[in-house]
Design a protein that fits this description.
alpha/beta, 10 strands, Aspartate Aminotransferase, domain 1, globular, homotetramer, 7-stranded mixed β-sheet, Aspartate Aminotransferase, domain 2, 3-stranded antiparallel β-sheet
């Protein structure tokens, strides 16, 4: 009974089907018919014109999206616990040619306009200090918490005011939309570019970078190739994304994962370190409690010295959830 | 009847099977059981210990392999028509942080020791000039020509003599081995690292970087993550590579592609611009002749103003080859 | 009466003399007779063999020194208020190709071994997290505070233990040595490389990078040229450094600056935000007090909303110090 | 009797005087009164508004100028023997974050529009190939040859037509203007940015980057700091440039150097490998002839196996020229 990561979940059968169907003769790289459908499909989803690039990882998606906004001498405001800061092996430094991540704190790994302002305002506009060029937030956050539409409105207003690009790292965007019950565009209100995660939600190895200003995507196409991320059989990448977004599978999968997480949360209310708003639970759990759970066959990651991270996925079985909930309650 | 590129060929059924079998619960990134088998499988193939990293593209494979050998202030000697120089969108400049490609000429896109020496010898060992740190050759070359074992011996001896790393871009390594009829290690004699191509030979989107000094791979693991090339469901990458190398499928596929190319070559001997030693033909072909072929349903790329590139693959049908051969003969 | 910065102080007459004397025909770049004397002169000063490279700025000195220790995928542990983090326009990101600064807090902008350990220890040794490769401290610190020899011993021991390079940014090294009254090598105990500042201490535009492992300097010579820091009339750079270090002028100048600062500190004891150990004072000062001082002709920088930074230099006049001290007392 | 390089020549007395005069209290970095005069002085010289940044070396000047025009994924068209390609230790790769130099041939190290077109035209506008973003030429060229105004008109027209920035590396711009007898702006017709060399022409260590679109300079100010090229006592940099350009000294010095070179050329007409249009002579000279000259006390660099480079400077003595001319004639 595995709750390590939604990364470990299987590929959804409908994604498999789409990939098999894609295995026909077509032009290489991004010249195929499936890739050609992406912009339109995504524009329909978001209700406005957008340009889409597929890449194999969220790290590449985040960094290429930011590369459209931030020059090498610039900076990106983000949370101290943001994935780009903590868990991407320094990829932003590589893709952005040494641009700097400028860190703010804040509960639940969420950036607030106040925290961003407190960081930005003291920066002298002189050449001795790195100037911020973008703000990046994670929806849902690294602690599984979701920015409300009003929060995004405030953040994007700040970006406009200060001339910053607004990037949303949406590794778990589907879960956020499922939670908010709003439209996809509302759930990333004001974003110039998204890293729209597919892999945690049923895909194999395709993520989508979505640019709401389609022209911004043009340079990034060169950057993608230059980073070795333009696959020659790109049709398999497009197929995965289309399988998820064209018939609502993305949202369906996310709802299942969220429901499982919420169910668990209700069974262990006293242990929650963060509100459960997507498909991750962060629990207070002593080492001996963790050992006891593992002895019962539950797999998960420790989180610090006295905690655990539990992740559900589109395929998490109800009986596993029940079993884990019961085991937690019985500790 | 498509002869555009082996990139466009389908995924081999045995690769599909292996990928489906990989769709079980496992640890993320490169922590899965299949990835764990790669080093041993590849060591068995090459008859010496090696370390293997999967990546999604040949561009990433080439550049990460070179990153193990070349500091930012250094240079890579390669052919003027090498893929890394001509067709990778400047990726070496990105991955190597501005290191320089140092170009030599030579027939059939092959580097000779003499040409390499003529470039290297006049370089003053002072800080005003970029110093070469590696030699990169393509096996088979960009014109489908194969380095003989003796040629590789001479090139690797030169590398040892001058303290250069030796990288072999093996996008079509299988075809080269099939042509030479030697052992895999002989076909890349002396190489410190290979980019062992799988995608043109039946895989979907996995290539292997092979390091013959396994310690050299360690830093590259960090570099791979940093470049966004560490996929979270890495088991699907390893599965593709294992499917090709564990039971000889790689060589079987390459032999089919080579045979098709050779057959075609024999049917159009007067048109060959380069010897046909792998699965590519470069033909003299006027614009009107090219148009005539296309009108008959043959797809292929132009090559310069008076030429064409014809590529066969593991799945090229015999009747298509016969048809194209006949059409060429009838021009 | 200017207390803005020691950067603004004039060039010392003996430095001028040395530069004029250098204006004879000689070989270009670093091939001149004066540059040839640097290693020996600096080795004599430090009592052990070292290799010296001149550059025009402290920023270049810091970054080139670090480039000898830190690969692009690595990190540098430093203080949150370190000059390389706060005031060099992102130069480390540029020179180190995107390597990361990893920030610790601590009083008086000084790094403690405990703070460094608290940052380093939780870093998982996996590819998702940037690994530290060096520690950089500033002697005297950005608040004019001096690391004691024992503190440096503890920090350098930590570096040895964790395999980190140890860099000391010595923009005001002379002031630190003057304060400590120890040997130059003790004042940078265990450092692998120094940025030995000259410009704030009487030079015009030459700083010295000192490598205690002379071999480490070799690659940096290429990096210096590559960064456009190899001046063609390098003799004028070497002349400045020799003028300062060969006859003790560096220490003489620093003692004067320190004495002036100390004198001032004694006249405004209640206002000190940090101990005065070098040639900088950080004072509590309200906006109206600052205005009052400026109205009396004193120039200095504000430091935050309620503070001021006062810097003395080798040429600070005693009567100016007396005047400022009296004005402070009279506030 | 030294003819190695104009880099080795002394600092002009009027430059010394200006530097001494600059040694007064002023604001640091580029906040001083002399730096503030640069834009106006240079705009007067060129007859149109321009923005000026000082840096210490021609390498930094070239690379920072190009950084305003070329993104990391782009390329710079230049001559195969251009200084940026051959003699700057890979600095363009560093400053431009891996952008590529795209090389053309051509007599006398001069780029022709035809050669540039022949390189650019076959580049497919797709992401696999690096796209050119700028053209860089050297005035006077690396062989001491001068682009005529019409040649610059043709090159800059090509740049406009293809959307390329136009950079002129003017290490010996003064010599080119002196030769052409035209206005400074005509001698760099159409250039977006110049690296206006001062060091070979009487300065100590200041070069000027001149932007004819002043807005283009803004980002470069950040880049300069980030590259460690913003000196804290910048007043000494500005002083050198003003001393040369405000009273015509730059042209006066260049005329002297050119006259010496021309005089020599006339005394050795049969040996010239390139026309002598500035202050460099490239002569056919056997090893034994070179040895004979050196035995008579003449210093110069070999140029290949059968050649020599002779460089004159603003201070080259007439009797030395006569002596060398006679010695050459007597060989």
């Amino acid at each position: 009974m595995q709750f390590h990561s939604d990364n470990a979940a299987p590929v959804h059968p409908r994604v498999w089907d789409a990939m098999r169907s894609a295995d026909a003769l077509d032009m290489g790289y991004d010249g195929d018919a499936l890739t050609a459908r992406l912009d339109e499909a995504m524009s329909a989803l978001f209700g406005e014109p957008c340009a889409v690039l597929w890449v194999a990882t969220g790290t590449a998606a985040n960094c290429l999206a930011l590369a459209a906004m931030v020059p090498p001498e610039g900076g990106v405001v983000c949370h101290r616990e943001a994935h780009i800061e903590v868990d991407e092996g320094g990829a932003p430094g590589f893709f952005l040619h040494g641009a700097k991540l400028m860190l703010v704190g804040g509960d639940h790994a969420k950036v607030t306009p106040d925290a961003a302002r407190a960081l930005i305002d003291p920066i002298r506009d002189d050449v001795h200090q790195v100037q911020p060029h973008a703000l990046s937030v994670t929806q849902a956050s690294e602690y599984g918490c979701v920015y409300r539409v009003e929060e995004l409105q405030a953040l994007s207003a700040l970006c406009r005011e200060r001339g910053l690009g607004f990037h949303v790292d949406d590794a778990r965007f589907a879960n956020a939309v499922a939670f908010l019950g709003c439209s996809p565009r509302e759930a990333c209100h004001g974003a110039d570019a998204l890293s729209f995660g597919m892999v945690k939600n049923g895909a194999m190895n395709a993520e989508a970078i979505v640019f709401f200003d389609p022209e911004k995507a043009d340079r990034v196409r060169y950057r993608r190739k230059r980073a070795g991320h333009l696959q020659s059989k790109g049709r398999f990448m497009a197929a995965q994304i289309l399988a998820l977004i064209e018939d609502g599978l993305w949202l369906e999968n996310a709802r299942k994962a969220n429901a499982a997480a919420l169910h668990l949360a209700r069974m262990a209310p006293g242990r929650l370190l963060h509100p459960v708003e997507a498909n991750e639970l962060f629990l207070r759990l002593s080492a001996s409690e963790a050992a006891a759970l593992r002895a019962q066959g539950f797999g998960f990651h420790d989180w610090g010295a006295q905690g655990a991270r539990i992740v559900t996925a589109w395929d998490t079985r109800e009986d596993h959830v029940e079993a884990l909930g019961a085991a937690l309650a019985a500790l």
